[in-house]
């Protein structure tokens, strides 16, 4: 079996930690994993959608099972597993919020796996836009209709489920997503890039990085800033422009004061 470089590095990390513990317990005298040569893990290129492209994608998804899921992905920056693990009781329609409490994954030859969110900070509350709330209400109404028509419906209270109410196979959902990209004549991107798209759009609009950090569920602000450093130049230009405007206004005010004080 040939393992991906990232998988090898992950396994090495576990073994390294185990050997460190073995040294502490006096079982071995050296951590031999430090002698291993690890493969180079290539960075996956991220591709964020522009505002126009995001609107194009949502428009292409109108009337499909992916419509509301994509709207939530682009307005909340939730991960794929978090979206597929979302339940209706996680959503507070009155206060327009949702709670990220779990993540759905799938392991070959094992099946579906429900797990805690990726990190402690990934377990978070997210404010929802009116656009997302309306989409969710429409989605729930359509789901209720399907439930009433399907004799094989399994009610698991999932927001995004398969046609029988059960867990939605992640790979199947992603296949539908890629077909929508083709329909919208957009470049082929990963589903995870929708998360990057949401964060990039917010930062580009001047939303404070700390707010974006909380939305993403990052434990450190440095993670957010490092990941989205490509947005910083445009943010810096906006700061410079605003700062220039402040001092320009002050100069104009001083000029007005001089004219009024003149005899």
UniProtKB/TrEMBL annotation:
One of its GO terms (biological process) is DNA recombination. Gene3D superfamilies: Intergrase catalytic core. Residues 44-241 form the Tyr recombinase domain. Keywords: DNA recombination. It holds the Pfam family Phage_integrase. InterPro entries: DNA_brk_join_enz, Integrase-like_cat_sf, Integrase_catalytic, Tyrosine_recombinase_XerCD. GO terms for molecular function: DNA binding. It comes from the Bacteria. This is Tyr recombinase domain-containing protein. It comes from Ktedonospora formicarum.
